[in-house]
Write a structure and sequence with these properties.
The protein is an alpha+beta fold and about 80 residues long. Helix content is about 25%, strand content about 35%. The chain has a single domain, classed as Viral Envelope Glycoprotein, domain 2 (2-Layer Sandwich). It has a 5-stranded antiparallel β-sheet with strand order 4-3-2-1-5, covered by helices on one side.
Length: about 80
């Protein structure tokens, strides 16, 4: 959970991204240090990157873990990607 420096923000900082995949379905978690928030999205429709099936913003890591656990329990195993 790093904070971006001013040059990173000026150059379009988007924060580190963590993804998990299950077939064509994708879970994304992005830490936006300049906002001190986690941006989480899930894409269930293949190829539709403009309309996530779920999109949430969280301030604390345990909220992200709860959100991921909900998706893992309802949809089955995902494979994490570094």
């Amino acid at each position: 959970m790093n904070w971006p420096d001013p040059d990173e923000i000026k150059n379009g900082y988007e924060g580190p991204l963590w993804t998990a995949h299950r077939g064509d379905q994708t879970l994304e978690v992005r830490w936006m240090g300049n906002h001190a928030k986690y941006f989480c999205r899930v894409f269930l429709v293949p190829g539709d990157r403009e309309n996530p099936s779920d999109s949430r913003t969280f301030a604390y890591p345990h909220e992200v873990i709860d959100w991921l656990a909900m998706w893992f329990q309802n949809m089955g195993p995902f494979q994490a990607q570094p």
